[in-house]
Specification:
single chain; mainly alpha; 5 helices; 51% helix; 0% strand; globular
């Protein structure tokens, strides 16, 4: 049995770059793709929302990755109300 390679195509330009930059800024010495894959549905769902929809749940587009990986890095301010993903 052969295993087919896994390729991701991001519909919104720049999302892959934002994910790479997010982890590069953390200075992590590991391959984050397994972690990204496990949360990709949440990332894509939030990224597909309009800016107004994100604002209605208390997020900006720049908050998406810190929110999704909050349990790992705790980026959002403790006082900020967080929606459930």
């Amino acid at each position: 049995m052969s295993i087919e390679p896994f390729y991701l195509h991001f519909a919104r330009p720049g999302l892959r770059h934002r994910i790479d930059l997010f982890f590069a800024e953390k200075g992590q010495g590991f391959n984050p793709m397994p972690m990204v894959r496990s949360r990709l549905v949440s990332i894509l769902r939030l990224d597909a929302m309009s800016d107004a929809e994100l604002a209605s749940v208390g997020l900006t587009r720049d908050d998406i990755l810190p929110f999704v990986f909050e349990d790992c890095f705790g980026d959002l301010a403790a006082s900020k109300q967080r929606p459930t993903a």
